[in-house]
Every structure is written in structure tokens, then in C-alpha cells.
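Slide 14.
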Amino acid sequence: MANPLRNIIENDKKEMLRLNRLADQVEAFQDDMASLSDAELQAKTPYFRQLLAEGKSLDDILPEAFAVVREGAKRVLGLFPFRVQIMGSAVLHGGNISEMRTGEGKTLTATMAVYLNALPAEGVHVVTVNEYLAARDGEEMGELYQWLGLTVGINTSEKSAAEKREAYHADITYSTNSEIGFDYLRDNMVATKEERVQRPLNFALVDETDSILIDEARTPLIISGAPEQENTQLYIRADRFVKSLTDEVDFKVDLEAKTVLLQDEGIAKAERYFNLDNLYGASNTALTHHIDQALRANYTMDNNKDYVIRDGEVVLVDSFSGRIQEGRRFSDGLHQALEAKEQVQLQEDNRAMASITYQNLFRRYKKLSGMTGTAKTEAEEFREIYNMEIITIPTNRPVRRHDEQDLLYPSLRAKFGAVVELIKKLHDNGQPMLIGTVAVETSEMLSQMLDQAGVAHNVLNAKNHAREAEIIANAGQRGAVTIATNMAGRGTDIKLGPGVAQLGGLAVIGTERHESRRIDNQLRGRAGRQGDNGYSQFFLSLEDDLMIRFGGERIRLMMERMNLDESDSVIRNRLITRSVESAQRRVEGNNYDSRKNVLQYDDVMSQQRNTFYDNRNQVIEEEDTLVDVLMPMVERTINRVVDSHTIGKPEEWELGPIVDFAGAILTVEGTVTVEDLQNKTQKEIEDYLYAIAKGVYAAKEKQLSDPAQLLQFARVVILRVSDAQWTDHMEAMNELRDAIQLRGYGQLNPLIEYQNEGFRMFEEMIAGIEYDVTRLFMKAEIRQNLR
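Slide 15: predicted structure.
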């Protein structure tokens, strides 16, 4: 039987051999490129484009094109890509993920693959986690691309549509994942093709791939419109009610799943509180939904961890990066539940007009690649969801960081006492430190302890992330102490100050294990860049969230067996690290299942979204006439109406409703009578009514001398009806997804039920669009002054 581990190792060896051969080919051009003048080197870009026009492939020109970028980088940026960077860039060109350690120069690595893929002039998107990095990398690396004759655009949220269009039509565009996503959705809501800003999605190179394609993939992008009338008082009443409940008696919290369920006693209290006979009666679905969200807000989400209050608003905090998520709100009433909990102004819950998950957005690119320092733990997810392999690139110099075993303390008090002691000791020697915390609250508490201990320091968390790059860039200077929430400042290199290497390099101290091993590895990886000295140490306690949720009780029993007291005892044991990593793997598995579940449901919507957007784009792209779109809609509407009223024998047919339809929707009332339809077959009735509809269309065509006016009118009618129906359909699909889970209790697969029901609802939406378009177009009076 084949050994899967051996296969993986063999495949990795083969890939390394291939990459080394490619690197040899690129380095073989080194002397030739160095001998060229600036003008001759710059002339390579039109030369490559000519080769592509003559039928050469990107793979054919890769070695020489990479060599051109290397030499260009040396002249323009003063940087000359290492051999391992050539290998990393070849992985990116292949549509895979290049895993390179922190400090190995991923930004420079990307330049070769970006240049090569920009040559066909179909657009390359370099995607970063925030706008600071998009602007920084776009400006710094943009110098090289522009020197080589390519155009560069930087797309940020504050830019106008015209500026965005210019940025997207450049050869290379730097932007954030969220801005590309929102621009994609907005482009599929425009009324004319001239309003679009993006081109077809060609090649995306995603920096910090794991952060964007994994961590942020749990939350779909949503563009909202005006809300329907809402009862904000219901949020406040639900919040007051859940605050009156008693844990374990009225409700139970599942910490692992982060869910809250009302117990029988809680249900009885709700019925008394809201004066109801049955809380789960059909007429109380809105109330039960509000109570569920209030329970989640009050008992699974914490201020200064999951969100912060800023200027009287509830602002979300990214649980992975510790950054504030500007403009993001929880959907489905959860954000309002948090606002009620914190007693701030409730904002209206808008209706979703367009939505897409990051998984389905990035799978729309012809080619997708990425780079990160930490992705191997998520190899299965990248392979299954994005069809990308993770290739680990060796470091340019050997890693010299010293990673200590985890230290476990019985209590938070003992743990943080030990953390402060270590910080004081290292600070007295002048060794710089980066201290990672999981929550804003923890960083502020530790900051107060360091103030009391007289240790000068910087705090970097979701409340002051504007200075993050500046603070993190100086974290390697002698005596610097930097507290950072998770991976704040990611993407900014920490260079060691003079004399710091002799002190042991940067010391990374983790005050808690994150639920994802990748985040711990990212924090640890900030030390020991490019062969620098470095040190890392994680501190844990039995009162940490991760330990409480997974396995803390087992370790506590082990401590009791070892007769360790509950005061300040510390355990150094590989068993602890293994137990914690086992717990992290469980959480990662849960998170993967959660993201996969979101994706499976969104895949249903994705098929519908693609069909809807394709049909919509056909209407927008049309330049002559929409008769071939509009009249088949009218014909199908007629056929549906006739079919529904001609069931059974002809004497059982309901001709009256068909006559009513003709008078109300197709033509003037009284034009069609029951006598006109009698003694006709079903097909003859359909043909008769369609002939009338064609006559109405011809009359409108004659009425307008300018065909462009008829085209514009038909376009406006189809788009307005389609967009209104699509918004209603998305809302109905969201409600279906929430309700469908109950069918699992009836031994039915909720996903299959969602697919079947969703397909039926989509068909109904299409029928509804065609009916409304028929009614509006056929009955409308078109005047010459139409604009």
C-alpha cells in the first residue's frame, strides 16, 4: 500500500529539483543582463510582448524575463533577488503558494512573477491585507515596473470611480481584498458598461495568503441597500430579557461551538416576559431570532476582544490580526444586538443587495497564487477550496532563532507575573521584545503592569492601529518593548538595531496560544529573519480561553498527580505543547468545517449569482436592440400563464383568467375575449397571445423614431425589475439557510434541501422577473422625450 507521507516527500523533492533547474536558467542570464545599457534592458519589455504576440508562452520566456527583473531591481531599487527568491517567484507564476519565512523578502520575490504575468496586458492584481501595504508596495515596487515600461495603479477605498477605473486598467494593480470584492459587486449593479471599473479577473497574487483566503473567508462581503421598516425596540427588549437570565438554569453556553441555547426554564421565562402562549409559534419567529442574537451578543462576545466601542459605535476587531475592521458590520441583526447590549445608538440593519464570499471571488480569477510565511497547516483547505499547492521555499540563510518550550501556569495571575519578570530581565539587558497578546483587553492589562514595573513600551492594538507600521518597524531597536495584539503590523519588516544581534536578537514573547497554530507561528517568525539571532517563548495558563475550551481539565488533573501546588508552579513539558497543539488542531478543524459549510451554501448562491450576472451583463452589453432578450421573456410568461390554466380536458380549462391576464398585462382590456380563445389548442392560444404581444412591440418601435431610445427603455425596465427581484431573492435565500437546519432533525440533509429549495426559488425569481418585465414594457406609454 502506498505511503501518503512518502508521496508528499517525493513530490516536494521533485518540485525542489524543478525550481532549482529554473533558478539555474535564470542565473545563466545574469552576466548578459548586467552588460546591457538601461535603454537596452528597458527594451526587453516590448521585445517580450512581441514574442508573446508571435505565439510564445509565458513559460517560454520566464528565465529571461526573470533575469531582466533581477537586473532592473538591482539598478532601480538597489536590491538583487536571491536564488531562493527566484524559486519562490516561479511557484507564484505556477498558480501556487510560496511559503517563505518572515524576513525572506516576499515583496521583492513577487516582482518577477508579477512582471511576467503583466506582459500580456490583461491585468495583474497584487492583493494586500490593508491599504497602507497596498500603497507602500505599489509605490516602492512600482518604481521598478514603471522603469521597465509597465503601468501601475493603486486602488483604495477613497478613490472615485474614474480613478478606480484607471487603476484597474493599469498592467499591475495594487489593492486590498475587500476593495476588489466590493468593486466586483458594484460592477455587477451598474446600469451601463461605462460605469464599470474592473476588467475581467485575470491573475491575482495574494500577499499574506492565509490571512486573506483563510482567516477572512468566514465573513462574506455584502453591499447593503435601504432597509425595510424595522422595530429597534425589539432589539432593546430582547437584550433586557436575556440580561435577566441565569446561566446554566435558563440557558447553556457551548464554549467550543460558541453557541447559546435556551433551556426549558428560559423558554418559560420568555413566554411570561413577552406574554406569549408559545415562544416558538409561527407568529413569533422575528422575536425568537432577536432573542437568539441577544444571547449570542451577551454571552459569546466580549468588548475589547471581539469588538471595541469607538465614538459611540460598536466596531469589529479581526480576531486573527487584531485590526479594526473598518466598515464591517455583522449581518442578520447581530450587530444591532451588540449595540443594544452596549447601550449605544442602534443603526438600521440594511438589506443585502449583493453578496459574495472571498472563496468564490478569488476562484473567479483565471490564475491565483499567494505568498505567506505560514500556510502549511492549512494545506488541505488550500488544495480543496482553491486548487493551490503550498511549496515551502528554503531560507536564504539558516534559521538561528531559539524556540523555548511552552511554560504553563495554574492561573492568569501567576502567568502574567512571570511574563513581567522576564520582560524586566530582558529589558535590563537592552534586548528588544515583541510581546503578542490575543485580545485588546490583555494588551491593556499588560501595559498597566509594565507601567507599574517602570518599563517603557509601545502598545499596538485595534484601538491605535494607524501607527502600527511605524511602531513595528522600530520593534527591533535596542531596549524597544512592543506589545502587539496578535499579528498587528504584519507585512512590516522588523530589522535589528546596532548591537542587538549580540544581545540575542529580537525576543518574541507569546502571552497566550492562539486558536490557530499559524498565528503563533507568525508571531514567532518575527524573530530570526535572514539568519539573525532570535528567541521565542510562549506562556500559558489553565485559565486561558483555549485551555478552558480544550483539554485544560486533563492537564489540571496531571498537575494534581504530580503534586504541584496551585500557587506559582510552572510546568515545562513537551506533553503540554503537544496537548495545546492537539487542541489547536481541533479548533482549526472546526474553523475549516465552518468555512467549508459557508462555502457549500454560497456555492449554491454562486451558481445563481453567475447566471444572474451573466444575464444582466448581456442586457448592459447590448448596443443595438434588446428584442432578442425581451420578447422571449414575454413568450415564456405567456406560456406559463396558459399552461397553469389549461390543465385537464379542454372543457375544464379556465379561459377567464387568461383573458384577464391579456387585458391587464399584454394589451388593452377587452381586446381579447373568452370567445377568441375557445376551440383553440393550448399551443394555438399561446401563439395567438404572442402575436398580440409582438404587435404591441412593433407599435412601440414605430412610435419611437430613434431605436436607441427603445433600447434604453427596455434596458431600464429589465435592470430595475431584475435588481429588485434579486434583492428579494437573496433575502429569501438567507432566511431559507437559517431555517433549513431544522430539517436535519427530520433525517434530511440540510444542504441538499437548500440546493433543491434554492433552485426552485431561483426558477420562481426568473419567472417573476419575466412577468414584471412583460407587464411594465407592454403597458408602458413611451414618449419621444424619454431620456
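Speaker note: The chain has four domains: 4-222+359-392, 228-349, 400-583, 622-779.
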